[in-house]
Structure formats: C-alpha cells, structure tokens
Design brief:
Helices cover 36% and strands 19% of the residues. It folds into two domains: 1-33, no CATH class; 49-129, no CATH class. The chain is an alpha+beta fold. The protein starts with 14 loop residues before the first strand and ends with a helix. It has a two-stranded antiparallel sheet with strand order 1-2.
Length: 161
C-alpha cells in the first residue's frame, strides 16, 4: 500500500515493511497494537496472572470498559471554601466514562463545589438577562447609588450585621 493511501494520521507511529512475494516487492503497513499491563483498579485480586484475560480497548468501547472497571477514588482535601481551620472535605470520585475526567465533572462530584457552580450559572443567567433590560439595570443602579435604599436592601437580604 503506498504511503499516500494510508488511513493512519501522520502523527501516529507508522510501521512499514517491504514484502517480497515472488518477483513482486510491496510496502505493507502494520497496524499499531499495544499490550499494556497494569493494576488499574487498585483493588486486591487473587486471580493468577496466567488466568487473567486481556481486555481489548478501542475508541468505540473505551467508556464501556472504563465503566466495567468500576474505578473509584475516595480522599479528603482541606476545605478552602470556608474560614474554619482544619475543616476537611470528603471527595468521592467515580470514573465510568472519559467525560468523568473533565474538570467541571470532577468539581460537581463534590456537593459544596457543585452548589457554587450552580450559583455561578444562575448569576451568569441573571447577568445575561440584565444586559437586555435597560429599565431594570437603571433601577438597580439607582438603588445602589442611594444609601438608604442600599441599607434597606441589605436588611431585606439579611446581609446587614
């Protein structure tokens, strides 16, 4: 197979050898196949190494294989969301699909951080709707510029100590 007809991307490792069949010489591209051994579950397994079966993983079944492994990680981190010294946040992460490794997905697995992300989304929605309503924006501006109205708003929201 000529190199220009190859379906493999150029970034990938391409292994080509010359095949001699009779009088003909032909370039043959070998598929890249890897066997990776490892303890990916971090759980004890009494199965003998010889009795373990290999698992074929490709881009079509990656999430399925990841889900079957039941990967889970539990730990605690220092709570930086509150001022309490020595507070710890428990974190329990389950990985069942490749998308579970996204930063926002990981953050949503911690309830305290998930609530902050929901609040952020609500504030962004509010900001977007305020941008389209000049009368409301002007009313907010007038309340914030008036010290008495600002004080009344703080009391109403329970922010005045």
């Amino acid at each position: 197979m000529p190199p220009e007809c190859s379906v493999a991307p150029k970034e990938r490792v391409n292994i080509v050898y010359k095949s001699h069949v009779g009088e003909r010489e032909e370039d043959v591209e070998l598929p890249l196949k890897l066997l990776i051994l490892g303890d990916f579950t971090l759980r004890p397994d009494d199965t003998l190494f010889e009795d373990r079966r290999q698992v074929s993983v490709d881009k079509r079944n990656f999430n399925e294989v990841l889900g079957k492994l039941g990967l889970e990680l539990s730990f605690t981190v220092r709570n930086r969301l509150t001022d309490g010294a020595g507070d710890e946040l428990p974190v329990r992460l389950r990985f069942e699909a490749l998308s579970d490794f996204n930063p926002e997905t990981v953050a949503r697995r911690v309830p305290e951080i998930g609530r902050l992300l929901d609040l952020r989304a609500a504030l962004l929605t509010l900001k977007a709707s305020l941008g389209r309503n000049p009368a409301f924006r002007e009313k907010i501006r007038s309340v914030l510029n008036d010290p008495e109205a600002r004080h009344a708003l703080k009391q109403e929201l329970g922010l005045d100590a």
